[in-house]
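Friendly challenge for the regulars: who can give me the structure tokens for this chain first? No prize, just bragging rights.
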Amino acid sequence: MTDKPWAGRFAERTDMSVERFTSSIQIDRRLYPYDILGSIAHCRMLAKTGVITDEEASKLVEGLGGIQRDLDHGNFQFDDRLEDIHMHIEDRLLQDVGKVAQKLHTARSRNDQVVLDMRMFVLDATGMIMKSLQDLRLAFAELATQHCETIMPGYTHTQRAQPVILGHHLMAYYEMFTRDYLRFKDSYARTDVMPLGAAALAGTTYPIDPHYTAELLGFSTVAANSMDTVSDRDFVMEFLSDASICMVHLSRLSEELILWSSSEFGFVTLPDAFATGSSIMPQKKNPDIPELVRGKTGTVFGNLVNLLTMMKSLPLAYNRDMQEDKAPTFETADTLKACLGIYIKMLPKLTFNKEAMQQAASSGFLNATDMADYLVNSGMPFRKAHSVVGRAVAYALEHKKELHELSLKELQTFSKSIEQSLFDHLSLKTMVSRRLSSGGTSQKNVKGAIKKALEQLRKEKAEEKKFFSEKR
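First reply, four minutes later:
Bragging rights claimed.
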């Protein structure tokens, strides 16, 4: 092992406890593919600008390729004394190709090097999450297609409110995850910035060509300010923020599936392959997948708060605190990808109990608003209609009936405007079919929303296929 790169300044060797405390290799070792790609591009750029020779660059690139193969196959020794993945690769390169390896770090610092690796990791993670979100949204649209006629109660304050189409409810999640997709897509552009050339913080005196490096690595643009470049973790915080919002949506979905699969609701049955049993109660079928997704949400939230807190008081430019950005980023990326992946598999296998949903929508006075609308259409002001229907509900509760179970004579004691036509007005099918306002729950609207969603997904997939084929 060589001396540390800063050994010339120090009179004492680094204490072993300090080496263990400052080492990040057990975490950042997963950045090795990006570190090697970045180093290869850097070598080629240095050769292009004449800082090193073509022969030197070829030797370095060949050596880096050999190191990658060993890392890929697990034939690489790690040592806390070398701190991080960057120093491990540089030290191994010196062993493999000799002193020419000492030229690799010309016009580069670990400060801009680690930002490069992290940007490349976040870009790849974002791309995979975007593709998963497309698959998840497709699953929702296809599931909604099967339930354009299934009526269920819609809720506010967890109380039955008005009847809705199950497909409409499912498409609400399509909209949530579409916003997540667009957030990740938007943040991708701000992450897609090549930082090499910033060096430690002030740039470099060498005649580098960062645009060529960016071209080799598939970046769209080059960082504009060297100090901002090495101290910027906005792209990581934005990634964690996007992931946290997405986990909110996954957690809300999980909560509904947990409730709906209970005996008290009985709206949905989870597939046996995506549930577990009890070690003591033979009858149990537990919704472990939704519960775990709901639980993992806290981990992702915590990682966002972790990074926000870490960054909030750091002066420009680089500070060692930033080493702590990797663990929360890796954990968040792994967690979100896993949660999306399991839901993509589970959603198509859900079985909905249409009869239980319709029965639930038929009780609890979910047609009260429609009765008020009926009176408004007969010329009554809405506030008066609201009061009339409220008194009718109180009467029905007292007599243990629903509004549509009251006789015409009983209903007319509350308003002479009520006629036999009210009863058709209060049927479930009529109530949902009349909700034709933009974004409403009518069957026509739901079918239109699904059609639009499928067209949107086809367009997105075509665009993303072209976009990512032009990247690394």
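The chain is about 60% helix and 5% strand. The longest strand covers residues 159-165. Your move, everyone else.
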